[in-house]
Design goal:
Elements: H1 3-35, H2 51-61, H3 64-72, H4 82-87, H5 91-119
Helix pairs in contact: 1-2, 1-5, 2-5
């Protein structure tokens, strides 16, 4: 088995865990936030079904300096409101969101990097 296949397998395994955590985070946390009238309109723009799950996980995982930069942008209406989310979630919800976001970003980034490096013939 080649190095490329092994690295792609690791990225795919991370993506599989991210898929499981996506469903769990959506059912446990985001479902609760959708039902709450105080947070229903503060989950960010939903381009496709389930996009608000990514918005919430991203908002709960983003560092404060980056959140402040996003809030000053003219596109700030597209991201979830961190303060409203923080007030209406518990520690378990925030940790679950951060774990999901870590697996999601890591696996997607690794897959994209592997495709780029493979296109340049590094694994030939």
């Amino acid at each position: 088995m080649s190095l490329f296949s092994q690295l792609l397998g690791i990225a795919a395994l991370g993506g599989f865990f991210a898929c499981i955590l996506f469903v769990a985070f959506g059912q446990i946390t985001v479902r609760k936030l959708r039902k709450n009238p105080a947070t229903k309109e503060r989950l960010g723009v939903e381009f496709t079904s389930g996009w608000d799950i990514l918005n919430v996980a991203g908002a709960l995982s983003t560092p404060k300096w980056l959140r402040d930069k996003f809030n000053q942008s003219s596109l700030s209406f597209m991201v979830a409101d961190y303060q409203a989310l923080y007030e209406n979630t518990n520690r378990f919800d925030r940790v679950l969101g951060r774990i999901f976001w870590f697996f999601y970003i890591t696996s997607v980034t690794l897959m994209i990097l592997l495709m780029i490096v493979n296109a340049f013939g590094f694994f030939d």
